[in-house]
């Protein structure tokens, strides 16, 4: 019986682009202009050495972070700010994928109306060299200020549509020419289970865009805990990590100056945990590295040491997930609430971990941090009115 056709080594590229925050869907065009220029620049530079078969965008590259920063009302943001897949924005990206004959991996905030109307998800999707959307997944873990809905927030509906297996939450795209691709985003990668789920589902290359490196800096090491995590994911699961970081961000549509909230340090890590591509700057830059799927496959099926997945004792770990920590179905029957209310949900999660003995409270505890809204408009919805007005 013959095996799969060999996959030739190829170049993977991660783009870091300067981002304009959006206050209306039409503002996405400015970011698409930058992305298009970046793709032309990267392929013309890197493609002379080896075919570029995979181009990955950073988190926020299309839609920015205004919803998170300003605690915008979820339902209105879903209706007025974010995109449909497919739609005119993805059509423009598909034209670039066809032009260069490359896969394009994208993050954006998008509606998923066949799941739940008036919700938006942090979506990861892949466009094929034919310009077709061939993969779509949702971010499963969001940081405490992100407003996106997750599959777990509408768990019963998600399971009704997709089932409750690994593939429902961590799908993997199997391709004949670039290997098997899994997608997570930012906070997802702070949980070892996320990349392990993709690995068990067959992933060979994992896309994980963006992390606020200045907030997670681990001593003097470049890339901080973001790079640390991604090297560990690659090493523990014998797979490649493609990790472009967001460029400097214009926080609002009318901001005069961008702020480097990500801190740069995009990187690509090979299946042994070695950094094979790294760039310090995130300001309209790119990172590149050679992906050798055949070398990865040989390692996985021949190596008896440091090939950890092969001897995983699954029975030992099953019970530790029996008791839930974060509540499911939070936004299935009610609209997502604001930061202050969500903070209380997270505090209750900490309380559950204390009650079960996972956490031991300190002898002296300071009061917990509380959400402080940006100054100005009392109602965040008024910001959307101002930003959407071209003369505002």
UniProtKB/TrEMBL annotation:
Protein name: Hydrolase
Keywords: Hydrolase
GO molecular function annotation: hydrolase activity, acting on carbon-nitrogen (but not peptide) bonds, in linear amides
InterPro entries reported in the protein's UniProt record: Aliph_Amidase/BUP, C-N_Hydrolase, C-N_Hydrolase_sf
Organism: Embleya hyalina
Region of interest: Disordered: 364-392
UniProt keyword Amino-acid biosynthesis, yes or no: no
SUPFAM superfamilies (alphabetical): Carbon-nitrogen hydrolase
CN hydrolase domain location: 13-298
Keyword Hydrolase applies: yes
Gene3D superfamilies attached to this UniProt entry: Carbon-nitrogen hydrolase
């Amino acid at each position: 019986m013959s095996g799969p056709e060999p996959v030739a080594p190829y170049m993977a590229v991660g783009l870091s682009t300067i981002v304009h925050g959006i206050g209306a869907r039409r503002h996405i065009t400015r970011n698409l202009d930058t992305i298009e220029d970046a793709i032309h620049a990267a392929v013309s530079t890197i493609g002379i050495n080896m075919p570029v078969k995979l181009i990955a965008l950073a988190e926020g590259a299309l839609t920015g972070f205004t919803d998170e920063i300003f605690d915008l009302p979820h339902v209105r943001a879903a209706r007025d700010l974010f995109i449909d897949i497919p739609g005119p924005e993805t059509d423009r990206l598909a034209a670039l994928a066809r032009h260069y004959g490359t896969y394009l991996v994208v993050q954006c905030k998008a509606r998923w109306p066949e799941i739940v109307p008036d919700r938006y998800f942090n979506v990861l999707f892949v466009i094929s060299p034919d310009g077709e959307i061939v993969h779509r997944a949702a971010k499963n873990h969001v940081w405490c200020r992100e407003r996106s809905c997750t599959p777990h927030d509408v768990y019963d509906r998600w399971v009704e549509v997709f089932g409750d297996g690994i593939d429902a939450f961590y799908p993997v795209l199997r391709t004949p020419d670039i290997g098997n691709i899994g997608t997570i985003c930012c906070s997802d990668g702070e949980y070892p289970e996320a990349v392990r789920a993709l690995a068990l589902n067959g992933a060979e290359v994992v896309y994980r865009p963006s992390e606020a490196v200045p907030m997670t800096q681990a001593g003097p090491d470049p890339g901080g805990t973001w790079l640390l995590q991604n090297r560990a994911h690659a090493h523990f699961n014998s797979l490649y990590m493609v990790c472009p970081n967001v460029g400097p961000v214009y926080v609002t549509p009318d901001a005069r100056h961008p702020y480097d909230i990500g801190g740069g340090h995009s990187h690509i890590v090979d299946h042994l945990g070695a950094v094979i591509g790294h760039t310090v700057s995130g300001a309209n830059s790119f990172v590149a590295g050679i992906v050798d799927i055949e070398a990865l496959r040989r390692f996985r099926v021949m190596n008896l040491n440091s090939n950890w997945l092969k001897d995983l004792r699954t029975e030992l770990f099953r019970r530790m997930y029996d008791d839930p920590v974060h509540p499911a179905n939070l936004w299935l029957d009610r609209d997502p609430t604001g930061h202050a209310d969500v903070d209380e949900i997270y505090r209750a999660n900490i309380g559950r971990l204390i009650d079960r003995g996972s956490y031991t409270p300190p002898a002296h505890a300071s009061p917990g941090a509380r959400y402080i809204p940006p100054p100005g408009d009392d109602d965040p919805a008024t910001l959307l009115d101002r930003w959407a007005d071209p003369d505002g």
